[in-house]
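Record copied across here:
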Amino acid sequence: MSKQDLARLIEAADRLAAGGFTMDADWQAMHDICQRHEGEQPFDWGHALCHRIEGDDWNADYWYRRAGKRRGTGTMAEEWSAMRMELSAKI
């Protein structure tokens, strides 16, 4: 995993957060990035967040397990804030 790819994930998720976590082009961009890096923990975690936003809890939980994480109980913004801190530390 390159730091540049991780930075792209963070940028895409920041745009998604700025738009209120809606299913739009920013969601699709983040989902596409995550799919290209399937099997890499940070991207699987991002993939989980995408499906949580989508409302597909079964699919989200699958990706959370693959990432070694659990679905958050707070808001999307709270989860993204915690994710962002952890992912930014890897850059």
User: Anything to note?
Assistant: The chain has a mean pLDDT of 95.
